[in-house]
Write a structure and sequence with these properties.
single chain, alpha/beta, 8-stranded parallel barrel, 7-stranded antiparallel beta sheet, 22 strands, 28% helix, Ricin_B_lectin, glycosidase
Amino acid sequence: MGMKASPSSAHGRPGSLRRIVGAVGVAGVVATALMTAAPADAAASTLAAAAQQSGRYFGTAIAAGRLGDQTYTTIANREFDMITAENEMKIDATEPNRGQFNFSAGDRVYNWAVQNGKRVRGHTLAWHSQQPGWMQALSGSSLRQAMINHINGVMGHYRGKIYAWDVVNEAYADGNSGGRRDSNLQRTGNDWIEVAFRTARAADPSAKLCYNDYNIDNWNWAKTQGVYNMVRDFKQRGVPIDCVGLQSHFNSNSPYNSNYRTTIQSFAALGVDVQITELDIQGGSATTYANVVNDCLAVPRCTGITVWGVRDSDSWLGAGASPLLFDGNGNKKAAYNSVLNALNNAGPSPTPTTSPTQNPGAGQIRGVASGRCVDVPNATTTDGTQLQLWDCHSNSNQQWSSTSAQEIRVYGNRCLDAAGTGNGAKVQIYSCWGGDNQKWRLNPDGSIVGVQSGLCLDAAGTGNGAQLQLYSCWGGNNQKWTWNRA
Ligand code: G3I
């Protein structure tokens, strides 16, 4: 009978177990047996796992100074899969003296995240605030050049390692003008934001590039419209921008509004991802938290949510504001349960978009220069076999799928694997084992970048049998790939 549906029949759809159990009704014994037999259908029990069901992430800000607090790290490690350094990658932290970069605190947060299997958002490269004294004292072309050097220095250090950078932070004015905020950066010329984005794209082509701001959540606010117009203009003129970060610090002066979903939809419709980057809600209303999550879930290009701290006591607002999902003792609050439930009740996975940075599903990987596909020679499964280009066909040795762990798999259990980190290192198949040499970033420009090396998947020719290797990314079509979904 239908009740005996196999676990895979509703794979990953958490609502289905509840429907099955409900249909069983009073036959509690059967229901219990089904629950035991079908754990894959159980609702996820952490925020990250629940968000992953729809292809999204759930992140938190992390402060390096709290990494010694075991309650803090236990919760953070268990619940979140995307990490933002709360202060440690900002300008004053990373370039305290002009031209002298310091990544010690940033790396502590980065390493903790990666060692625990999490991805990292970079925050932030160009901002009027938290500038070191030397930068505050600059103006005009020397400040412009310092901004460019800073972006190159920080993005160079983390090249290939960051999911998305908040390239420019908080550049728009509060109030009714809808215009730019006055700042030393703004006074270098109105083009400072696009210069920052162009610099960022060149510095690390593998990172998504975001504009991030607060008070751009309410669709009716002038500031929201100002940022929207800038993003639309950037997309029209080809200024590289991949995402908009809605900080979403909600409080009585900037409350959640039901038009938030319209805001997310409107930005997404411009062809950028939307990320909720610094969520906190003064008072911690469980209903408002659920509304925010549901609004993101309603828009396929809303790709993830980050809360701005772990426990109330970790918040920049102070514990009294009760703005986060865990109380000062690390207990789950009502808001936590409402967020988890909302994530577990999400609809189907987001529809793949045109951005190759999202999970493209299974299919052939076709070289733009050659028109030929990434191919395992002779359909061998032997570890260490170097990959080649070959005329595209539909056999299994050209069927690749990307995973949420950033692997690119063939035959289900073999991974695209870099046999080194330098130019010319061979790209081969190898049994999947979770190493960084088997992780790849899929970029908006079609390049595929090795996480360990920061180098691009490169075809050393265009004909049948041309070998695949790593090589410094240079923007050529032999380093660009399209994924033909099955
Ligand atoms: O670490 C020092 C400490 O040694 C010193 O004794 C103390 C004295 O004031 O300051 C400490 O540094 C503070 C730091 O947070 C770490 O707690 C800084 O003063 C303080 O300015 C800094 O505040 C940060 C704030 O950005 C600065 O603009 C908050 O932690 C951080 O949560 C907040 O985050 C921002 C986002 O970057 C951008 N969007 C808004 C968001 C909230 O303001």
